[in-house]
Amino acid sequence: MESREPALRGVRERTADTLRRLAAERDIWVSTAHPEHGPHQVPLWFAWDGRAVWMCTGATSATARNLRKEPRVRLALPDTFDVVLLQGEAECFTAQEVPAEGADGFADKFGWDPRRKEKPYVYVCVVPRTVRAWRGEAELRGRVIVRGGVWTR
Fold first, then answer.
1. Are 29 and 42 spatial neighbours (Cβ–Cβ below 8 Å)?
2. Where are the domains of the chain?
3. CA–CA distances in Å: residue 102 to residues 4, 49, 122, 135
4. Domain Pyridoxamine 5'-phosphate oxidase N-terminal spans what residues (predicted)?
5. Is 73 exposed, middle or buried (0-12, 13-18, 19+ CB in 10 A)?
6. Vertex 69, ends 63 and 74: CA angle to 5°?
């Protein structure tokens, strides 16, 4: 089987592809860290609202505990060839505090509404400050498509 380097995309195409994936994909890897216990990584369902990633996790999960101590987070879509990495600070909301648009978008996408569950959940919102996207080695240069929260388009 022959391996071919993918066609080099410009920033507009790379940004459009990334936004398409954020709108369509279901899972995202969430990496947090606790000052005493170190790194923690878990896949979660997510919804993209055009500005932010919305996730949900149990209120007592390691992810929620870590974010209370250290809100900086890294997120990654689950594809090692078509890489999308996001960084930002997480804001956590209880089911009673979560903005309706975030929780409704999550519920609409998955047909599951944690606000209606007995177990307490935390909604996690991350507005990306940095996004890196690349396919193959040729796209490593220019991989930053969001810097300081601004899309480079």
1. yes
2. 11-151
3. 40, 7, 12, 30
4. 23-134
5. buried
6. 50
Give me the count of residues in the chain.
Answer: 153
Distance CA 52, CA 152 (A): 16
Nearest to 138 by CA among 79, 87, 81, 78: 81
**pLDDT at res. 141:** 87
Which pTM does this prediction carry?
A: 0.92
Q: Which helix (H) or strand (E) holds 41?
A: strand 38-48
Q: What one-letter code names the amino acid at 47?
A: A
pLDDT by residue for the chain (153 residues), tens only, comes to: 555 667 889 999 999 999 999 999 999 999 999 888 889 999 999 999 999 999 999 999 999 999 999 999 999 999 999 999 999 999 999 999 999 999 999 999 999 999 999 899 999 999 999 999 999 888 998 899 999 999 987
22-28: list long-range contacts, CB under 8 Å, 24+ apart: 22/48, 22/53, 22/77, 22/84, 23/48, 23/50, 25/77, 25/78, 26/109, 26/110, 27/77, 27/78, 28/53, 28/55, 28/75, 28/76, 28/77, 28/78
11-151, which class in CATH?
mainly beta
Tokens representing 85 are 């990495």
